[in-house]
Write a structure and sequence with these properties.
Shape: rod-shaped
Order of helices and strands: HHHHHH
Radius of gyration: 41 Å
Number of strands: 0
Largest sheet: none
Helix content: over 70%
Number of helices: 6
């Protein structure tokens, strides 16, 4: 019987553990060299082929173009937002100018006509606020737009109360309060214009 330490069942000497590791590691070394970024399986340094270099260059160029397009877009978007605001504000200012002038003409002798002028003012302010919500403002102008909407609502509510006055005298008693509320609205609108790079309004309010 063969000794267990030296022979297997067939009489062939079994390699010790250290010999098995040597054989395995030698075989691995012959089949594949160490791979770490710059070395391939055959041990030679890898080189960047012309195809990969072309893709790399195109990637850099594409990124640069995207950045340029983004800058142009955002620069143009500010101008578009300013244009959107003036598109909403200009007709409201024209309408309010006519309505305020109409009230000034009728407040001393025509109650029904004066009331009609005031109610048109309320509708114009409300329509302006509805359209203002469709404009997407940058952060600073968005804050000012929210404040403007709140001031508009207070003004419209006050003008509505004025329109329901039972007499011209009572109606005229609201004039100073309405003028003060309108001044607040104009100040808030000025903040939006400043944030958008627009000049101060020459219109009635906005």
């Amino acid at each position: 019987m063969c000794a267990a330490a030296d022979f297997d069942a067939c009489g062939v000497t079994s390699p010790e553990a250290s010999e098995r590791w040597t054989l395995t590691s030698d075989s691995y070394t012959r089949d594949a060299r160490y791979i770490d970024g710059d070395y391939a399986r055959d041990g030679r340094a890898r080189s960047i082929g012309p195809g990969f270099a072309t893709v790399l260059v195109l990637s850099f160029v594409s990124t640069a173009l995207l950045l340029i397009f983004a800058l142009v877009y955002f620069a143009g978007s500010s101008a578009r937002i300013a244009s959107d605001y003036t598109t909403v504000a200009a007709p409201a200012n024209r309408a309010l100018t006519a309505e305020v002038d109409g009230y000034a003409h009728n407040r001393n002798g025509h109650l029904a006509a004066a009331r009609s002028d005031l109610m048109r003012e309320v509708r114009t302010v409300g329509s302006f606020d509805d359209l203002l919500k469709t404009v997407t403002f940058p952060s600073a102008a968005a804050t000012a737009a929210g404040a403007l909407t709140q001031a508009d609502q207070k003004l419209a509510k006050l003008i509505g109360l004025q329109a329901r006055a039972p007499s011209l005298r009572k109606m005229r008693s609201f004039d100073r309060r309405v003028e003060a509320a309108a001044a607040v609205v104009k100040t808030k609108a000025g903040l939006i214009r400043r944030a958008l790079g627009l000049p101060p309004s020459s219109g009635a309010l906005f």
